[in-house]
Design brief:
heterodimer; A: 287 residues; alpha/beta; Elongation Factor Tu (Ef-tu), domain 3; Rossmann fold; seven-stranded mixed β-sheet; six-stranded antiparallel β-sheet; 10 helices; B: 482 residues; Fumarate Reductase Iron-sulfur Protein, Chain B, domain 2; FAD/NAD(P)-binding domain; five-stranded parallel β-sheet; 19 helices; 15 strands; 34% helix; globular; binds flavin-adenine dinucleotide; binds FE2/S2 (inorganic) cluster
Chain lengths: 287, 482
């Protein structure tokens, strides 16, 4: 169970792995996530399922190295097994034929956006995808995204590839051009989702965002994943992970995500001194 | 002086005038408060042989054993204590296990003072302290685990029936143990990566060592119970999916959804539910950080809201994690504190402070989103409410702040809606608890049983075990297995 079948580095600090998980692959719906532990003293972290193959019984995970667990996972090789893998968790994306759906994916958010656009396309929507990253080297899954979009727009902050600018600008131009948009799905770093929500609010465009609060159990038992939506406290793991972007308190989310900054650095530095930790190139000092 | 029979004779011949036994209730050795406040080892160390014999000799072996009436699973208390007196500890252990398959756990966490020991004749007014039944149960069960751990009962031929159990807390485990011993195949599905429910994620190591829970579960495994961890029923598969592959399903998912205070500032960093705080420390071993990867806010000044066992566990955990000052904030007075007297006593000994007649109004934070204190309202006791307890009411204008960097909300749990909401036509009450017959565990749906906290709301380990046992009997009856 939970054996790593394929693994590749698809960008600086970004990995993709295909993992054997029969039951999860069978039950998974777009928008859902898993919680994993790499080893017996490991922490539980959530990762959105980027793809699955129900026939082969595999799921695909894409992650960026940020804390001790994502670094640890990054050092694991084909043939190794995850200690624990629990899922699928969270509510699936609400998929129906809305008309035209724009998927906006920023950085690592492109991975979780993929199964959603795939589902939206299958449901008969006209799908326009806008994906972006800081620079060309950080872009990934562009070919996959092309297959599940009727139109694909790519931007980089530094202009090294595609349109020069932020994904929000691309979205704004698209709307201002008069494109009829019925629904926006935005997944990426918190500032990006916040910017998209602020933009679409002005146009009164329904906007769904996928939140990534800190989690422990992922089943509604602990409340670590608390987020505020429309002034109400919700649990990201069971009430979400997707919420109405116009109602989410993004500033609170940002602060809560920084809660363990100090300890995370300690854990990472400690990991770096282990045999396994030497295998990965953790940038000095910062996490 | 140590002839127990002598005491018994006296009791039976002259029940009214007879002098009471002079042997006082035997204390259980424990780590000193100073020492234990800084480690996670078990507080209570258990009776020695001599202490156990001495305590056992206090039992009067009443003809009408009221103690048994106080026990939710009706353990044959006088008989097992008699076996201790005769030195037959294996026999005593089997006697207990006839009714309670997890005695090492119950002997540690049962609120005996409101159950068997409350109804013990020695406890009757003016007659002194009750026989320490719980401590004796623990002694016997620990002894048996050390000396006879490998003895398994002989199993009957498989009956061919298959039962699925959702949740591996005491309710599910007890049912699994009951059924497997009758040849019924059992598979237990658990959402978390470890088995045991609240026993592993909630109740701290210093009250219930995890090795004990593990040993009890290993025994079930050796008996043939199958376990699936990381298995969230309602997501991986529904109860109806389970019914296709099993003859029936038992739901024992506990009362796992934490309640918050619904006051401003509750989502500030450093504010935890007790469930999260305890799960990080117990299940994820954050107390070992950074040897274990999961972090926890190691507060210097910690405030805990609530007055139950969960509040005591949270406060004592905070202390062991290194807090300089831990304060329990409770709306009523010491007299209404719902926690077990023993736990409150332990907490006080360890230096936990109590701020009584105090209700939180707001949690105060800084720019970075961290808690810096709480604003409180002084309370006084007014008229009794429906529960008969005097209702706390605010004292006009008496507000004050308490400085702190961590707050833990321990005001209770509600039912987790995941299983009820994904099981069609399963009746629930207005609090979201599954409606089930308390004697049989039968729910509104055919072939579905339920028991434990998901039915009763947050209760006790022994009541959950009792529910598991009753449901097991009902399932066997339905299958025609005796
Ligand atoms: C901190 C704390 C201290 C306590 N101290 C005491 C004490 O000293 N004495 C005492 O008698 N009682 C105590 N209690 C109460 C006692 O622990 C509970 O009453 C008892 O554990 C309830 O047992 P249960 O089997 O109903 O559920 P639980 O022990 O809650 O177990 C339920 C299990 O089901 C799992 N589950 C939930 N949903 C799903 C799903 N969808 N799929 C699969 N699995 C699922 C959960 O992960 C959990 O493991 C305490 C409780 C807490 C929180
Ligand atoms: S992660 Fe624990 S409730 Fe959501």
């Amino acid at each position: 169970m939970f054996e790593i079948l394929e693994k590749a580095r698809i960008g600086p600090g970004v990995h993709r792995a295909v993992i054997s998980a029969l039951e999860i692959a069978r039950a998974h719906r777009p928008g859902q996530f898993v919680i994993l532990r790499c080893y017996d003293q490991g922490e539980r972290i959530p990762l959105t399922i980027a793809d699955k193959d129900s026939e082969k019984g595999t799921i695909t995970l894409v992650w960026q190295e940020v804390g001790v667990t994502t670094y640890h996972f990054g050092t694991m090789e084909v043939g190794e097994r995850l200690q624990d893998l629990c899922g699928p968790l969270g509510k699936p994306t609400h998929i129906e034929n809305f008309g035209t759906v724009v998927g906006v994916g920023g950085g690592i958010g492109i991975a979780p956006l993929y199964p959603i656009t795939k589902g939206m396309m299958a449901a008969g929507n006209h799908v326009i995808s806008i994906i972006g990253a800081r620079t060309e080297g950080l872009l990934f899954m562009t070919e996959e995204m092309r297959k599940v979009s009727h139109e694909l727009l790519i931007s980089t902050d530094d202009g090294s590839y595609g349109i020069h600018g932020f994904v929000t600008q691309v979205l704004k131009d698209l709307i201002d051009k008069g494109t009829k948009v019925d629904m926006v799905v935005a997944i990426g770093p918190v500032p990006m989702m916040k910017a998209v929500a602020n933009l679409t609010r002005g146009y009164n465009l329904p906007t769904v965002v996928s939140l990534n609060p800190i989690m422990v159990d992922g089943t509604g038992m602990c409340g670590a994943c608390r987020v505020e939506v429309g002034g109400k406290t919700m649990f990201g793991c069971v009430d979400g992970p997707e919420f109405d972007g116009h109602l989410v308190d993004f500033d609170l989310l940002t602060k809560r995500l920084a809660m363990y900054k100090g300890p995370e650095l300690i854990a990472l530095n400690r990991f770096r001194e282990t045999e396994r930790g030497c295998k990965c190139s953790i940038p000095g000092g910062g996490a | 002086m140590l002839d127990p029979r002598g005491w018994r004779m006296t009791e039976q011949q002259e029940p009214k005038k007879a002098p009471r036994p002079k042997i006082p209730r035997q204390k259980m050795p424990e780590q000193s408060a100073i020492e234990r406040a800084h480690n996670f080892y078990e507080v209570a160390l258990g009776y020695t042989n001599d202490l156990a014999l001495l305590e056992a000799s206090r039992c009067l072996r009443c003809k009408k054993p009221y103690c048994m009436k106080g026990c939710p699973v009706e353990i044959d208390i006088p008989d097992f204590i008699e076996m201790i007196k005769q030195g037959d500890l294996i026999g005593a252990s089997w006697k207990i296990k006839e009714k309670n398959s997890l005695p090492r756990i119950a002997g540690r966490v049962c609120p005996q003072e409101t159950q068997c020991e409350a109804t013990c004749v020695l406890n009757k007014k003016g007659k002194g302290e009750p026989c320490a039944i719980g401590r004796l149960e623990r002694f016997v069960a620990d002894w048996a685990a050390q000396h006879a751990a490998d003895e398994l009962p002989e199993l009957p031929k498989p009956t061919g029936h298959k039962v699925a159990v959702v949740g591996s807390g005491p309710a599910g485990l007890t049912l699994a143990g009951g059924l497997i011993k009758k040849g019924i195949a059992v598979t237990v599905m658990e959402a978390l990566h470890e088995l045991g429910g609240v026993l592993v994620y909630g109740i701290p190591e210093f009250r219930l060592p995890k090795a004990i829970v593990k040993a009890e579960i290993d025994e079930l495994r050796r008996l043939g119970v199958e376990f699936k961890t990381n298995w969230v029923v309602g997501r991986v598969e529904t109860v109806d999916d389970l019914l296709e592959k099993h003859d029936c399903v038992f739901i024992g998912t506990g009362a796992g959804a934490p309640l918050f205070l619904r006051i401003p500032g509750e989502n500030l960093n450093g504010v935890y539910s007790a469930n999260e705080y305890l799960t990080r420390s117990n299940l994820m071993r954050a107390y070992m950080f950074p040897e274990a990867d999961t972090p926890i806010a190691k507060g210097r000044r910690v405030v805990v809201f609530g007055g139950g066992n969960v509040a005591m566990d949270s406060a004592r955990t905070a202390l062991r994690l290194g807090a300089e000052e831990v304060t329990i904030v409770y709306r009523r007075t010491m007299a209404e504190l719902p926690a077990r007297a023993e736990e409150t006593h332990h907490a006080e000994e360890e230096g936990i402070k109590f701020k009584l007649l105090t209700a939180p109004l707001e949690i105060l934070g800084n720019e970075a989103g961290w808690i810096v204190g709480i604003r409180c309202q002084e309370m006084e006791l007014g008229e009794p409410d429906e529960s008969g307890r005097r209702r706390p009411v605010p004292v006009e204008g008496k507000l004050f702040d308490i400085e702190c960097d961590t707050a833990i909300v321990a005001i209770g749990n509600a039912a987790n809606p995941l299983v009820p909401s994904t099981t069609k036509n399963l009746e629930t009450n207005k609090w979201g608890n599954i409606v089930a017959d308390l004697e049989t565990g039968k729910t509104s749906r055919d072939r579905i049983w339920a028991g434990g906290d998901i039915v009763t709301g947050a209760a006790t380990v022994i009541l959950a075990m009792g529910a598991g046992r009753k449901a097991a009997n009902s399932v066997m009856q339905t299958f025609g297995v005796s």
